Amino acid sequence: MRASGGASPRPAPPKRSPSPTTTSTATKLLVRASSSLAMPPPRLAHLRRLLSLHSPPPHPLAPSPVSPLPLLLPRAMAGAAHAGVATGSAEYEEVLRCLSSLIKQKVRADTGNRGNQWELMAKYLQILELEEPIARLKVVHVAGTKGKGSTCAFAESILRSCGFRTGLFTSPHLIDVRERFRLDGLDISEEKFIRYFWWCWNKLKVKTGDDIPMPAYFRFLALLAFKIFADEQVDVAVLEVGLGGKYDATNVVKAPVVCGISSLGYDHMEILGNTLGEIAREKAGILKKGIPAYTVPQPAEAMSVLKQRASELGVSIRVAPPLDPRQLEDQPLGLHGEHQYMNAGLAVALANTWLERQGHLDRVHVKDHGTLPDQFIKGLSIACLHGRAQIVPDPQVNSECKDTSCPLVFYLDGAHSPESMEICAKWFTHVTEKDITQPGPLEQPHSSSNTKKILLFNCMSVRDPQRLLPRLLDTCAQKGLHFDQALFVPNQSQYNKLGFHASPPSGREQIDLSWQLSLQTVWENLLHGEKGILEFIAVSSELYCQDDH
Fold first, then answer.
1. How far is CA 389 from the centre of its chain?
2. Cβ–Cβ < 8 Å for 291, 255
3. What does the pLDDT look like over 29-40, one tens digit per residue?
4. Helices 217-231 and 190-207: crossing angle, nearest 10°?
5. How high does pLDDT run on average in the chain?
6. Among 297, 288, 299, 218, which Cα is nearest to 265's?
7. Helix or strand (DSSP H, E) at 72
8. 46 band by pLDDT with thresholds 50, 70 and 90
9. Taking the CA atoms of the chain, what radius of gyration do you get in angstroms?
10. pTM flag (> 0.70)
11. Cβ contacts of residue 155 below 8 Å, gap of 6+?
């Protein structure tokens, strides 16, 4: 059934006053670390607006006309406790309010979160009549600790470049919940999202109650994705696991075309287990009997578990090597960073296997000289996923700044594990080093003496900053990069409307900064461990709490 077959929209509700937006993962912005400060977030709304307007960034090694003011900010701005960002439609605001009501304020380490009422997913599928539509979807299913979203973005882009109608479901989102649902490479339209939302919401509201509660936030979004992809008749649905694998909402797919497991590491240990073996077993829960599976080079403990589980299912799990850059015929990857060649290699294996199993290998022309087919190269080079090693210049600030030699540039990444923090730091030091030495329009090298590097950081309290911040600081220090400032921000933004005409709320809301003060203490203790190389200075919070332009 097409979108037009959905339930009729509800009447537009009255406008509501703005409410804080809560964000989920970690946030980082890099500048030399000589001062640290726990601060409220008004300025971050401007960055969000930049992201909503910004086209895919140029390759990080492309010439830059001036030496930037670098800021590194990871995926931590992804909204979780608030469902998305309103764009002006009163009905869309009502949809977001309903979505927000599904968020369960439960401690993630609660043992009930491990497969909590997993049997309910089958009931939701029955209510929404999704069992048969899901069985007809041609799915690429990807789990992992690091890189699963990037792998999905690469695989979707490859198959789209081969001429197929694609659906992509990823998480979390940065600006708007609709980012999680892509059709043919574009976020689903507001109109379609609203229509499909009410279709699912109304059916579930009628059939749920005390015995069968409404699905939790992510489960609802996964069900919504299945409805969208089925009704939009996509040729391929690429699904990123939300958390774990075995009990993830996406794992209701019984017969995907191919499965992939990206790099494994220590994350969500309060839910998935304290060893790599335990974590690997949860991720391996997406493997299915008779379904081809691929992974990347893994630590021995994790690989042993993956192979054991595959053997139990009577399938072999093959290791996809990192992509050789020479296979791209001098084209850059659309997602930046050396680590993306690992994810790209996995995506190539998944896309190739999907084409083979669906009888579509004739769509691609295999070359004799070892490079990838043209469609694969195009797909890998145009892939886009916000918040993954992303570079966002600020044209508004840069146009107003008198010092044209030092513009403002945000470097965004969603690292939230020790291993990812190290990779993020290596990427940031590499691309900013290139910025410093790159000649400008007059072919004169720019001095880095005025370039400041600021770290804007946040992580959820369930994470251990003692494991995250040292890897970031040490890796940067080894490359000769030190921060002039470190700013620790909360999960909340005072803005919930981030369209073209967004404006700050009339009054400033009081936000609890106790966790940010704890992060600041960890950071300062790390700096003291450097034996006073860096000087501490007092910074007025007013400097950073000014109104957005």
1. 10
2. yes
3. 443 333 455 544
4. 120
5. 78
6. 299
7. strand 69-73
8. low
9. 23
10. yes
11. 140, 142, 238, 260, 347, 350, 351, 354
